[in-house]
Specification:
Elements (H helix, E strand, L loop, with lengths): L1 H10 L4 H8 L3 H13 L13 H12 L3 E5 L11 H10 L7 E4 L3 H9 L8 E4 L13 H12 L2 E3 L9 H8 L2 H8 L6 E5 L9 H4 L3 H4 L6 E3 L2 E3 L5 E2 L12 H6 L2 E5 L6 H9 L5 E5 H10 L4
Parallel strand pairs: 1-10, 2-3, 2-5, 3-4, 5-9, 9-10
Antiparallel strand pairs: 6-7, 7-8
Length: 301
């Protein structure tokens, strides 16, 4: 009877009164049987210890070899917007000032944190980390992100009015333009970069990422940062357009003191791990669900 009572109460979610009525015994008897079921190990009740965001943050920094990280409790809605606060905190810690350079990438997460607001850092220079895309979706408008960031900071925007993936011949023409070359030159003295982390194309529809056929063919890619693709171990994956992109290179990204990857989706766990291992990012801002998925995906120590 112990097993029957336990099943009815804990699995069928019947009240003790209803179980007593069904079995023709007293409610007190049911209560004693449930206590015995727990005492004899038929029923085990476990209260999970939930790690605080601060604890998870420390684990991410340690396990991914990051310079910094910030983790927020996963909100019921607006997970990307919730990342704006910790982004502002990391930017303040970076001690930026007039003349500092902040490179801006593209993506939904980047768009949402910029729209949610940034701290005032008068005199900073904001620059697009990549050329533009001939796409109408709001999360592809990198020059608009640069303008918005400059407005929020109280700084000066530097746009790149060139496509991110021109032909090899046109790439040289664009880079020969004085305005574009001046903006691109800022990449070598960038102090902070704010970038999104792309999903693998296997789970991200082509229209969502505007990926070319060559990019879609990268079936082993774990994700990308500024269209630089990598596998789960952090090895960069060459593709047909890599050499003709107008975008910060992996070497330039790895030389930036603080490259903040902004992402909030457990689906991106492997991509975030790969981006950190590839040294395309050295800081992460995310939520607890994503952080826990990252830690679960890492090999045990």
């Amino acid at each position: 009877m112990l097993h029957t009572v336990a099943k009815l109460h804990y699995e069928a979610e019947m009240s003790q009164v209803d179980i007593a009525r069904q079995l023709g015994v007293s409610t007190a008897t049911i209560s004693r049987l449930l206590q015995r079921a727990r005492a004899e190990g038929i029923v085990r009740i476990e209260v999970l210890d939930l790690a605080a965001p601060e604890e998870i943050t420390g684990q991410l920094i340690d396990r991914l070899g990051l310079r910094d990280a910030a983790v927020v409790e996963t909100p019921a809605a607006g997970a990307l917007t919730a990342l704006a606060g910790p982004l502002g905190g990391l930017l303040k810690q970076a001690q930026l000032g007039a003349g500092s350079v902040i490179a801006i990438g593209w993506g939904r997460a980047v768009r949402e944190v910029l729209r949610a607001g940034l701290p005032r850092i008068p005199g900073v220079l904001t620059v697009a980390a990549t050329g533009g895309m001939q796409q109408h979706a709001a999360h592809f408008q990198v020059n608009e992100f640069v303008r918005l960031a400059a407005e929020e900071f109280g700084g000066t925007p530097h746009f790149i009015h060139a496509p991110y993936l021109p032909s090899s011949e046109l790439r040289e023409v664009f880079l020969g333009d004085a305005a574009i070359s001046d903006a691109v030159a800022l990449w070598d003295r960038t102090d902070v970069a704010i970038v999104g982390i792309g999903l693998p194309h296997a789970i991200n529809a082509p229209e969502a990422s505007a990926a070319t056929p060559s990019e879609q063919a990268l079936v082993h890619a774990a994700g990308d940062v500024l269209r630089h693709y990598f596998d789960a171990e952090g090895a960069l994956i060459a593709w047909e357009g890599e050499g003709r992109m107008i975008a910060m290179s992996p070497a330039q990204l790895s030389a930036v003191p603080l490259v903040i990857g902004v992402a909030a989706s457990p689906e991106k766990a492997t991509a975030i791990i790969g981006a950190a291992r590839a040294r395309l990012i050295n800081a992460v801002i995310t939520d607890t669900k994503t952080a826990q998925a990252i830690l679960a995906a890492l090999p045990p120590r």
